[in-house]
Amino acid sequence: MSEPNGLAAGAGDAPVECRDMKIDLLGAAGPRGWPEPGCRCASCGRLRASGDTRRPTLVLVDGVPLEECSRREVPGGYDVRAPGGERILYASGAGTAPEPAPGARYDAALLDLVGRPDHLGRLRNSGAVTSATEVLAVHVDHRIASPAELDRRLGWWLRPRRGPYRSLLLGGARSGKSREAELRLAAHPDVTYVATARVDDADPEWSARIAAHRERRPSWWRTAETADVADVLRGASGAVLVDGLGTWLTAAMDACGGWDTPDAMPDAIGPRIDELVDTWRTTEACVVAVSDEVGLSLVPTSQAGRIFRDLLGRLNQRLAAESEETALVVAGRTLDLS
Fold first, then answer.
1. Alpha carbon 97 to chain centroid, angstroms
2. Cα–Cα distance, 259 to 256 (Å, whole number)
3. For residues 281 and 157, is the Cβ–Cβ distance under 8 A?
4. What whole-number distance in Å separates Cα of residue 283 and Cα of residue 281?
5. Bridge partner list, 56
6. pLDDT per position as a tens digit, 31-70
7. pTM for the complete prediction?
8. Is 213 a catalytic residue?
9. Among 3, 147, 179, 296, which is least packed by CB within 10 angstroms?
10. Where are the beta strands (DSSP E) in the chain?
11. Model confidence pLDDT, tens digit, residues 139-149
């Protein structure tokens, strides 16, 4: 019997069939199982309270333990040959990212998706993992909140969205909305990151925030540091991450001189908002955009601030109406609004 659903895609009550190869996941958790004995974290506590127990990763390939199959060590794991000759890329443990052999195309990839979902994106980008590759999550443990949260993320990682598809993520400051956007596209093979914030050398704290965002992006993502989001959406066909719409609106107001003439701001900004909404509606890309939820904050003390809040709130509403998915991110937790 294979591992219950919720730990690995394709590992429900039946083994995974990959061409002529059968993969049985008798366990897909970390080396101490999940929950870990004696661990007091919330993740382990949830599973323990529900009576759910997940066994350490144990894989059979055509009835043969994976460790007994012909295999070659690669950085981060193993390049495995199934008894029938099929090729498997296997992560050796939590936090590892197995390097593919030069020119290899794998029939299956057993990866630490909890810790390194971006590695799956890189494997797809290089062609080592294709649409025909069976991808399974192994070494799953309390680094993720629950099996339900894993299932939610696997919905994005195992079946990367093709466009047109629009996802709008709303949240307050430090809510985790940018991190959620990055997680959603981490395993996508073709990502353009649109950074709308401008670096201000006079503001070291703001520059440090931008630098932190740059550092955590996968190295193979393309980055467009621009406020012309509409132009990017017109020409994009893969996946686009826009972070974020609040700084986009700030740049639009700067360009129009809106801060100095707040009464004229709505008319000056209106055509730019209309253009953005139109390209959002007609784009061919899979787009994930981050925006600030302004309706829960304090009322701004200045007229320009209040107009900015109103414009961004209306922009959020218009984009949400044209999105397949809208979600609110609070304290790192995601609430579906669709």
1. 17
2. 8
3. no
4. 6
5. 29
6. 999 999 999 999 999 999 999 999 999 999 999 999 999 9
7. 0.88
8. yes
9. 296
10. 16-18, 21-27, 58-61, 64-65, 70-74, 77-81, 87-91, 108-111, 134-137, 165-171, 191-195, 222-225, 239-243, 286-292, 325-330, 333-336
11. 999 999 999 99
